Amino acid sequence: MELRQLEYFVAVVEESNFTRAAERVHVAQPGVSAQIRRLERELGQELLDRSGRTVRPTAAGEAVLPHARAALAAVAGARAAVDELAGLIRGHVSVGMVTAGPTVTVADMLAGFHAEHPGVGISLSEDTSARLLGALREGRLDVALVGLAGPPPPGVSVHVLVDEPFVAAAPPGDPLAARDTITLEALCDRELIALPRGTGLRTALDNACARAGFTPRVAFEASDPNILARLAARGLGVAILPTTVADTHASALRAVTITRPGLRGRIALAWRSDGPASSAAAALVAHARLSLPARQNTGARSMSDTSAPASSSRRKS
Q: Which of 143-147, 250-254, 275-279 has the lowest mean pLDDT?
């Protein structure tokens, strides 16, 4: 049994595809297939189910997978220990970012880290917060920028960067725009525009509506909050937006504070609670925590509060 066989096996399982796995490990696909076949012959069991459109681990493969990952992590740890003893930081780090996250901030952070540690390779991927947190816990990511609707899941530590309320945003001609506040339950019959499932904002919305006894009528979904705002400005529904995003669209939308319950969301830097798997990943977490300072936006002002004094004709619900 060779380490490269375990590496190829883990890559195929995580990519669910031989071609993508081969690209990931920089080996021709026949080479990957041949090495995994040798591993299967040595173990006397098929590890992968190749019969479907995607490749999946068999029961034997599921049993072998955690041991393969542990072996690869142990080797990486041994190399990291030697590098640390020699005063070197090198290797590779994997970073995840929630779709439509603060790209410029992350780019600046990664550029600073690269300048300090040019020997470390960096990969960046985008996904929903739910998938990023899963990849983080499984060791496929070293650090991730995620949206949180509540406490972080077990095994994950966070450094909160943004904590702000969500508002309901509608164009000035909408009856909702005449209000200062609205209860969440009062939105049960309105068509809503929101981020897709798996994002922090959508999870917060769905959970709050479930506690209130109804399912939100989400008519439109988009991964970019600015697109949600533009759809609402065209009268296609009420957008559920972070306050800061609503503020940037003050000329086209009026934001109304959601009460009973109020909705809040957080953007946070996340990593495994038991610590990064390598010295390079540990250095990245330390650098990110310094270059991405925590900041709070605890206000719950509506967009009209930032543009003009509220009119006496505005009503509360």
A: 275-279
Contact 263, 149 (CB under 8 A): no
Q: Is 280 helix (H, G, I), strand (E, B) or coil?
A: helix
Q: Are 116 and 90 in contact (CB under 8 A)?
A: no
Structure tokens, 63 = 């049993």
Structural tokens at position 83: 């590098």
Q: Using DSSP, state whether 154 is helix, strand or coil.
A: coil
> Is a pLDDT exceeding 90 seen at residue 291?
no
Among residues 34, 55, 88, which one ends one of the domains?
A: 88
Residue 101 pLDDT class (50, 70, 90 cuts): low
Across the chain, mean pLDDT equals 84
Alpha-carbon distance 214 to 216, whole Å? 6
The answer, yes or no, to whether residue 280 has pLDDT greater than 60, is: yes
**Based on the domain organization, do 188 and 146 belong to the same domain?**
yes
* Parent domain of 79: 1-88
135 plus 154 within the same structural domain: yes
Query: Does residue 45 carry a pLDDT above 50?
Result: yes
- Please tell me the predicted confidence (pLDDT) of residue 313: 36
3-state secondary structure of 71: helix
Beta bridge partners, 264, equal: 165
Q: What is the DSSP letter of 100?
A: T
| Total structural domains within the chain | 2
Per DSSP, 234 falls in state: T
Is there a single domain that holds both residue 194 and residue 266?
yes
